[in-house]
Amino acid sequence: MDSRQAAVPSPRRYANGVARREAILDAANELAIETGFAGVSLRELADRAGMSHPGLLRHFASTDEVLLALLERHESANNAWVAESGIVGDRGTLAFVELAEHNATVPGYVELFTTLAGEATSPTHPAHERFARRYEMLRALTAEQFRRAVDAGLVTARIAPHDEAVRLAAAWDGLQLQSLYDPVIDVPGLLRGHLAWLTGASSPVFDGLAHASAAGGAADPGHGGDGDATRGYAVGRARRDEIVDEAIKLFAAGGFRGTSLQEIAGGVGISKATLLHHFGSKDSLLIAVLRRRDERAPAGVPSPGVAPLDLATGLADGARQNSREPGLVELYSVLASESASPEHPGHAFFAERFRVGRLYFTAMFAALAADGRLRPGADPAFEATWLLALWDGLQLQWLYDPAAVDVAEQLSGHLSQVIVS
Asked: Which one of 248, 262, 283, 297 has the largest count of C-beta atoms within 10 Å of its C-beta?
């Protein structure tokens, strides 16, 4: 028998191999929904897929290969749906709502793409280039849709198609992230509200959103916290600062789950036991990192006592300030996406951060409306949610392509459409 013929698998063997690969990808999808993909091992995947570790290695040599294959499967299915539905056509911008509604029905789609988009901002991540190309293509396609919609008279607002494409993709990403922390965030509904304004209608009122965001007691972002940083001798405080700084660097590159305490301790030049003497657990260290990030990047956190108009017009300056600390922006994007899983120790911190941010900016827009400075028909709760989502999404795109996305400029462009001069 010809050796080349012998190497060709039989139809049954080929079908079995395809079925096993699909089982592995199904398991990876389940884990991505439950805990995020960062830090998942091949042994965990094998166990979830019901096969041995050596058996899994016959199909995938690394978790990176699994991840890229899972992305490809989701993208292929999504592209097929878009082609079959025919939503990209003469209806222009209205297609975005339909696509968002479809995405929400696909198990794991929003969780996987939202968390991975944040995690892959690190240039060392295996999916980094894939997401960079994806955003570049998305901006181009969306800008073309807006141009067609403007030419067809579907968009009555004065917009620059390219800028509107950048901002729509950004807000969409940010809304999906918020929805993983608070199910009251209706992504298709919020997109529909924004597109309604572009076509000449008033944005719908989101009183329910504001009420739901304000309901309930405040979550404690410091649960399992980092202890009192003012205690102890100066040497001890300095050591804690070293540990936090090293954790910031490593968490930004590899995420919380993908970084071990041993790696952090090694970077500082201490033992793991010494690290645990200063921080009782990895969860406590994470909270200290999140607090330090907000202290060092105050532009992303609402500040009390600032006049509403001054705050609104100063947001672009805050974005410029954040851009001077790209490592902190990357840290935020990585951890905010990874913490979307309810089991993650950072989940309560970010859920509370989004809740407080929405309430604060809702009050800001309400004050602007009372002064006659908010565009007619705009709803403060809607605008607050959109603004937070837009800022997060713009920072995400900026991390992939800083030359193509100017966060401060795009925020200014958006606010000029919302605030009456």
From this structure: 248
What element of type H or E holds 356? helix 347-370
Amino acid at 258: G
Whether the Cβ atoms of residue 381 and residue 362 lie closer than 8 Å to each other: yes
* Cβ atoms of 85 and 217 closer than 8 Å: no
* Tokens at 24, concatenated: 């592995």
- From CA 84, how far away is CA 4, in angstroms rounded? 39
Look up the pTM and report it. 0.82
Distances (CA, A) of 139 to 142, 168, 191, 207: 5, 9, 16, 31
Determine the longest span between alpha carbons in the chain, in angstroms: 87
Task: Compute CA 400 distance to the chain's CA centroid, rounded to the nearest angstrom.
Answer: 13
Per-residue pLDDT reduced to its tens digit, 215-262: 444 333 333 334 444 444 677 888 999 999 999 888 887 778 778 999
Choose from 150-159, 250-259, 279-288 the range with maximum mean pLDDT. 279-288
φ and ψ of 132, to 5 deg: -60, -45
Q: Which residue has the tokens 């968009």?
A: 155
* Matching residue, tokens 């407080």: 356
Yes or no: say if 284 and 224 are a contact pair by the CB < 8 Å rule. Answer: yes
The domains found in the chain, sorted by start residue, are: 234-294 (1.10.10.60)
Alpha-carbon span 24 to 19, nearest angstrom: 9
Structure-token pair, residue 307: 């006049």
Q: Are 356 and 294 in contact (CB under 8 A)?
A: no
Strand ranges inside 324-419, DSSP E? none
